[in-house]
Amino acid sequence: MSRSERMKDRARKAFGVLKAFSAEAPGGFKARIDVEIASGTADSGDAEGDLTTLLVEIGEVARIGDTGALFLLDETQNLDPSALAAICMAFHRISQKNLPVALVGTGLPRLLREAKPYTERLFQYRDLDRPSDAAARSALITPAERLGVHYEEDAARLIVAESGGYPYFIQEYGRVLWREVDQPPITIQDFLSTQEIILSELDRRFFKDRFESATDAEQR
Question: What is the pLDDT of residues 81-113, one digit of tens each?
C-alpha cells in the first residue's frame, strides 16, 4: 500500500501501529519495519482490542487507496479461544465500519461459532467435501507428471478408490510411492507392495496426534 503516493503517509502510520502490535503480542508478528513505533496504539496486551485496532488501521489505509486486504488463515481449530474471540471481534468491527478487509479461513467452524455467538451472521460458511474421482486422480498424478514420473492407469484408479478420495490420504499415498518406487512408471504392483508401509504411516501420522488430543470419553 505504501507504493501509492496518495497512501504513503497514511500507510506509514499504519506500519507504526503494526510495529506496536508486534512489539507486544506474544508469539505475534516478527516484522522489522523502519518507522517510528506508534506507542499506545494496539499495544495494550488485550488481544481483542489490539487486533481490532490493527485491522481497522489496515482497512482505513486500504479504503484510502481504493484497494483491499485479505488474510488467509489455515487450521483455525488450532487457535486458542482467546485468539478466535479476537478474530471475531476484529472482523465484527471491520463489518460495522464497512472496511475492505476480508478473511478466508479453513478448519472446524464449530469452534469459531463458540468463540462469539454472532459469528453465524458475521461469516459465510462453505462445506468442503471430498473431491470427485477425476479431481482426486488429478491431485495424485499431475504433480508427479510435471517431474517426469507417471502412474499406470490401473494403479491410479486403485489408489483413488483405496483413498476414498480423501485429500490427505491421496497426499500420503503419493508421497510414500514417490519415495519407495525407484523405477517409474508406478504400477499396481508397486502400490500393493507398499500398501502396508502407507497404512502404517497413515496410522502414525494421521491418528496419533488426534487421538492424544481427544478427551477420555472421545478416546473410549
Answer: 888 888 888 999 999 999 999 999 988 766 666
Using CB atoms within 10 A of its CB, is residue 198 exposed (0-12), middle (13-18) or buried (19+)? buried
What CATH number does the domain containing 156 carry? Answer: 1.10.8
Reduced to 3 states (helix: H, G, I; strand: E, B; else coil), residue 61 is helix
- Rounded CA-CA distance 82/100 in Å is 24
Residue finishing a domain among 74, 95, 122: 122
Question: Is residue 220 assigned to a domain?
Answer: no
How far, in Å, CA of 7 to CA of 64, rounded?
7
Residues 18 and 108 in one domain: yes
Round to whole Å and give the CA distance between 207 and 77.
16
Span 11-35, pLDDT tens digits:
666 666 666 555 444 455 454 444 4
DSSP 130: P
